[in-house]
Amino acid sequence: MKTKNENSNNLATPGKPMSQKKLASLIKEAEEGEFLSLDEFKIRFDKWRLQRKK
What we know:
Layout: H1 20-31, H2 38-53
């Protein structure tokens, strides 16, 4: 799974305050993402790690 790279804004840049509207939209976008239980994540992560070793 790849993350989308459409947001080219560097949110870690100090001195550039973010508007309340922008913050709310980022939170809403994150909440619409895919969420996994801890067990599901561990299974997927282990699969990914094994594929990377090959």
